[in-house]
Amino acid sequence: xxxxHQWNEFHRDGFMHLGKVLELDEIxxxxxxxxxxxxxxxxxxxxxxxxxxGGAYDALPxxxxxxxxxxxxxxxxxxxxxxxxxxxxxxxxxxxxxxxQTYGKHxxxxxxxxxxMNKPAGQGTRLPWHQDGGHVxxxxxDPLVTIWVALDAATVANGCMEAIxxxxxxxxxxxxGSTLKDEHVAIYCPSERIHALEVPAGxxxxxxxxxxxxxxxxxxxxxxRAFTMCCMDARTRSxxxxxxFPVVYGDPCVDPHPYIVHLEQERHELxxxxxxxxxxxxxxxxENLMLSKSIQQATGxxxxxxxxxxxxxxxxxxxxxxxxxxxxxLRARPSFALNASNL
Length: 343
Known about the structure:
CATH architecture of the largest domain: Sandwich
CATH topology of the largest domain: Jelly Rolls
CATH superfamily of the largest domain: q2cbj1_9rhob like domain
Helix content: 25-40%
Number of domains: 2
Structural class: alpha+beta
Strand content: 15-25%
Shape: elongated
Largest sheet: 8 strands, antiparallel
CATH class of the largest domain: Mainly Beta
Radius of gyration: 39 Å
Distance between the termini: 146 Å
Number of strands: 14
């Protein structure tokens, strides 16, 4: 059970060491499961994975359901709230206590993301100074706490997290969230304030989501793996879908808020209107194609009439020339002249 002194330190610093939460055999099972998922030897359709390309955070590839070839050079495996082994870890009583203290004993708790983060041996991605929150997460409210569990010992030598104690009191430096701007780094992250969050394997840390933190690469000969989960009020929804997230403590949110029901109805109506508008647009396109075809046919017929008129004009000229030729020939004959004098 956490005591008042620990909570006071958390409110002051923005992080709290929760102590040992895993035994050695449990650590081994969890690391093995993560590696087996990355290698493709274990399959979970709810899981997504990301390769670690080493170095630059901005150069990372997107997450995929499965690597083309099994590898241990992964950066993260997410969706682990659906895995039986990791679900046991999520249900730790101390984690439930943390959430009850943060969100209230009445609140059900859901998970935004539960994942294993990995810095492969001799590699790893350099994560810049950032805060966990803001519009980039596309949630209708900001989660407040993340629980981080070391599966391998996290040390300065293998690229452990570094934080700026007390920086959560600044609030989000950007409503968008995520990576800090250079001017904010210069102001709030001087070298003398940086605190290395070294953690033994099997131990956990509680982090306030607005705490400014970063991590480096792992130059050591062993991987550095950790399990992390972001816990939030279960009423939290995705602003993209309106959906809730998996509930891990308490009762699921069954009855949606009336405003959400109204939004759903409005979205349904808008989708119907959009569908009808699309059908009408397609009918106009088809009608336009038919009109274009008719115009082409009429244009072709008009051109054929023009050609016929030209042909008939030429024929008329030829007939007139022939008539004049005949008349001239008749006038030139003697019989024509004699008959003409007898008139």
